[in-house]
User: Fold these one by one.
Assistant:
Number 1:
Amino acid sequence: MSDSFIIAIDGPAAAGKGTLSRGIAEQYGFHHLDTGLTYRAVAKALIDAGLPLDDETIAEKMAREVELAGLDRDILSRHEIGEAASKIAVMPAVRRALVAAQRRFSERPPGAVLDGRDIGTVVCPAAPVKLYVTASPEVRAKRRYDEIIGKGGAADFDAIFEDVKRRDDRDMNRADSPMKPAVDAHLLDTSEMSIEAAFQAARSIIDAALSRNA
Ligand code: DC
């Protein structure tokens, strides 16, 4: 029995799960791991070392060496790293290595919030709270577009929209641990919901689970 209260948050990119997860971790004083960063860190390490992205043995070796402490979101959030991450995320040996590290992280007391694609289904299937945060592809593409423009960058909405759909397709249709809601996950569709409303909805689900656990 672990002393850690685990909150599993899954869903596609740009649905708001990162902001929500960080807010929840802060609210409850729990540790937080964005598991997407673990896949991104492996991809970046391969790119930096000039190694191929399609060799499972090499990628697995990198995955075993990845350090979960100090994953830098700013550096790892680059678009081409996300693309590379979604390629190595289809490899079962890479997933096994990263899932083992993610499970170790989830056991840190007093609790941990893990966000990703397969937390409720594969990494922490016994988590007492599972949320599946989603939003329509159009809304997610628009959020990404606004974020880039807001930072003073240049963005092409149609290209972002195509990219969101391509990434969803790869994440949902891979053979190993495809992205999908766990049967006992609470669905939060943020298409027409503010982040504050999503946060309040998540809080009432978590508070109810915490009082059942007390
Ligand atoms: O959430 P993100 O964009 O940082 O994720 C990068 C890639 O890693 C994405 O294509 C899906 C993959 N991923 C995964 O397969 N399983 C997870 N638990 C988290 C991310």
Number 2:
Amino acid sequence: MAQLIDGKALAKKTRGNVKEIVEKMKTKPGLAVVMVGDDPASKIYVSSKEKACIEVGMYSEKVILPENTSEEEVLKTIHRLNNDKKINGILVQVPLPKHLTESVIIDAICVEKDVDCFHKYNLGQLLVADEHTNANELIVPCTPKGIIEMIESTGQSIAGKKAVVVGRSNIVGKPIAILLLEKNATVTVCHSRTKDLKAETLTADILVAAVGRPNFITGDMIKKGAIVIDAGINRTDKGIVGDVDFVQCSQVAGYITPVPGGVGPMTIACLIENTLLLAKKGASLKK
Ligand code: GUN
């Protein structure tokens, strides 16, 4: 039976560390969360982000715009937040309504406030990071950052391991593949056109599932003793389930993350960490 990687507990610890630092800061870090439309799932995520921000003593601003808001209006909001000294991090909740071009909106966030690391400049920085990069200054996307912390919490080293990432999104699949590579894993990225997915996943010492399909990874796809990370959040009639069939896979894996209570809470904790990082970087730029 696999050992559980308790994302909720790890996230609580991370938020606690951030809170201690924020308490000592004269100017509190500020996070702005922008949401367009009223997608029920996004609403829950946005509220959780706001709550976590307030809980650690940061300044929080939530901007909810109607579904039919024009691109120009959304950009106006971003520009206002870019110029607001109270705000260190800006997050635009995705997915956005279809009439808005995600890349245009994300690229309007100034790179110094891109708390999600969705901007192409910051993703580029991540891609070219090497041993000369100051890891404490590098902004890393929240979900992949949380995933690395969860893998490292097992005490197993990543270097030399075979890692298989299922999914190639800009938010999770691509950046987690880069981070695992940076930690010296041998990385394979699988996707909808992969010929024999099971043959690939069976080689994985570390498996990251980020496909958005409920219970997609079954027990017969897991190598015995593997570290299995489930980044899926799928709403089904049976409630929220991940991309990994937990009942089956926990019989075979060495370590596994639950859904809920795994990657989700860590993503939010990393968002709070990133807000603090941007506030510190912003303060040192002003000196
Ligand atoms: N939608 C799903 N996950 C995320 C995330 O980490 N950040 C933003 N901005 N939107 C999301």
